[in-house]
Amino acid sequence: MFPQMAQIITPSEGERFSLKMFSISEDDVKLATLRSIANRRDESMGLKAGDYVKLVDKNSNQIVMSDTAMERRTNGEFLRNANGHVLIGGLGIGMILLAVQEKPEVQSVTVIEKFSEIIELLTPSLPINDKVKIINADVFTWKPTQKYDTIYMDIWNVISSDYWPEHVKLSRKYSHYINRDNPNFWYGSWRKKDFKPEKQRAYW
User: Fold this and answer.
1) How many angstroms separate the most distant Cα atoms in the chain?
2) Where are the domains of the chain?
3) Label partner for 152 (CA 20 to 30 A): which of 2, 11, 142, 183?
């Protein structure tokens, strides 16, 4: 489904962002699993020992994206539904992009990435094909010039209800650019239900 990014990405360092390799051991998997059970969370479900890649925002010391099992699982619905002309908000480490471009039912992939440095760090390593166009812009202000069959927003580093209004704002904006003539049109955003405030979960 998704490629092994440690076999593709070359570690690199920018002024604000860095692409790093890291390893997960069998002991790390056991410890993470125990913590997930204790906290009644499934963040470590499917976690495996191996080599991985992470994109780090050095300003906040936050992981922007990695290619661990959680990332693969939570982006799976988008990959399964991607078809036609696809719009993605956020480049991440390129894992999603590389998987989507290989789908025969995908005609084109447009990626909107806010930070030019992320594009500069990643694109030398990414084997992107001629379906792909990467645009340096902010998804909140960028104006599409066409409709898309699939739209997916993945711009958040942390899960917090503070960002729920952003999910709603983007959903309202990009709903005007969905090709509803396509019976297989699809719109989504990364882990949307996990950002939703508890008091609103019964209504959205």
Assistant:
1) 50
2) 5-72, 75-195
3) 11
